[in-house]
Amino acid sequence: MSSTIESVLQESRLxxxxxxxxxxxxxxxxxAYRKLVAEAERDFEGFWARVARETLLWSKPFTQTLDESKxxxxxxxxDGELNASYNCLxxxxxxxxxxxxxxxxxxxGKVTRITYKELHREVCRMANALHAxxxxxxxRVLIYMPMSIQVVVxxxxxxxxGATHSVVFGxxxxxxxxxxxxxxxxxxVITADGQFRGGREIPLKPVxxxxxxxxxxxxxxxxxxxxxxxxxxxxxxxxDKWWHDVVKGQAEQCDPVNVNAEHPLFILYxxxxxxxxxxxxxxxxxxxxxxxxxxKWVFDNKPSDIFWCTADVGWVTGHTYxxxxxxxxxxxxxMFEGVPTYPDAGxxxxxxxxxxxxxxxxxxxxxxxxxxxxxxxPKKYDLSSLRLLGTVGEPINPEAWMWxxxxxxxxxCPIVDTWWQTETGGILISPLPxxxxxxxxxxxxxxxxxxxxxxxxxGQSVGKGxxxxxxxxxxxxxxxxTIWGDPERYKKTYFPDDFKGKLYLAGDGASMDEEGxxxxxxxxxxxxxxxxxxLGTMEVESALVANSKLVAEAAVVGRPDELTGEAxxxxxxxxxxxxxxxxxxxxxxELRNWVAKEIGPLAxxxxxRFGDNLPKTRSxxxxxxxxxxxxxxxxIAQDVSTLENPAILEQLKQAM
Length: 656
Ligand code: WT7
Fold this sequence. Notes:
21% strand; seven-stranded mixed sheet; binds 5'-O-[(S)-butoxy(hydroxy)phosphoryl]adenosine; alpha/beta; 20 helices; five-stranded parallel sheet
């Protein structure tokens, strides 16, 4: 951690926004920002009440702003009522019915546009179809779909009738899907026959069938299947139904079901430091408020903007900045089915050129891979429509930042390096494009109303120039409300006793520089960030040892990787003998595929090393610190005298 912090403290290049940008910005200039910050400090609840009244449409106005009586189970706007889908769609029906809501570009380049009026109609028809299946307020609907207009329709249809959706990323395995169906207690599944990515067809419905075959999904009464690829998939009557059949004949109007502001809009599973993913539960009112505010504040949203977030809807970034945020503010959002390198590494730049994208939001890992695949390629395209760039998901290295700034933004576009998490619902720390002089690799300052700090193990602020633990000191409207079905874990994970239950523990290490800018360094817990995707080391370990025929023991650690940020390294003890040479390669490949089947391809270890044993203390505890050092190729300077079996270190170093 310390070497990264040093390099940040040395990073002195500052990029102030241009006067033209400042002039037109929704929050214009440092003064305007400071005023909002001061308002939130002076009158915390009054500030949130004001913005919530100005931003959202309430069917029943709230009179109470924040309830802290059951902290850390905070409630916001809790006597108010609203509907999220009404706030995303109906509100635009009079003012801009024919504006394009979603511009969808398929893997093969085919473009489909849907207007706000049409989207409203499709959402109503699906909402009525769900009603007809008996889905009602509070029921859980699991969505396992490709990037498509239909996945947005499915999410919005749930929101419209007060059903809680849980979207599972299409890259997750049958096993992961089954676990989530069971944990959420879903009674309906919406999926597709398959999807196209990079010219390849990837099945989805067969994965759903596999999940069902594993058992435990009996609560699910209906599986709705959207026909995307047209490949034949087994349909089991009466459970399985085609999307086009269930919406056929449904009314084009569906009254929104107004829900309490605290009603769970969605559950989204994410990894933690145990083997079991957690269902992060979000509210309706506070979450949607944040989605809208950050569209306006951070992405400086204008009615004329074409906004493109490249994330998948299966992640929180897609929830907030493809679906809820962009639609609620009434922008045109671009959605892309494919991958950045197909048919070639110019695809992103071509999409920006073709659709005249104004605001572009992507991940550092995508930027790094596109630099590698064709650092000069952006120059071949007309990117003059761009006015603002963003990144999310992991720290961005200053080199990649500079390339983004020079080659994509042509030195004109502010870059917002946005820090947030599945749990935070939306962006918490980020430059404001018309305010903050940016610094490569720094997420800069908290948004108005967000009280962030860096503390030591006892919860004391460490001050400027030192590394520590990132915390949020006061609740905010879009925070997660609990972990679905596990309130104890929520409390323990996010409001630990070490901090007297008062500070929100983000799980990231960070430092603050002279300007008071935050620089997020990486996770401090057993969580890895691989290509901007969060993975628990325990999750991968559990997956490995679940192969009880082959694996006796496994330990998983992360190591820095040029392209993916972090890479997964697994140390494995097999039940038989320790393989070497070709056999080791074959075995490693087999285990990699096994992990892909257990969790999903994104969890495949990059490197697997076999040993006769793992480095353990005399009491049998695996010494992960040492494994981390080996994985990084560092010399082990630490004391190894507590090791039961020091010779194992040499063996693991030599392995593979
Ligand atoms: C973790 C959250 C937020 C949507 C995508 C990931 C890391 C996120 C940044 C950033 C440095 C970042 C953190 C965080 N992270 N944004 N701008 N700079 N690190 O959501 O899967 O919940 O992961 O991603 O480590 O805790 P997620």
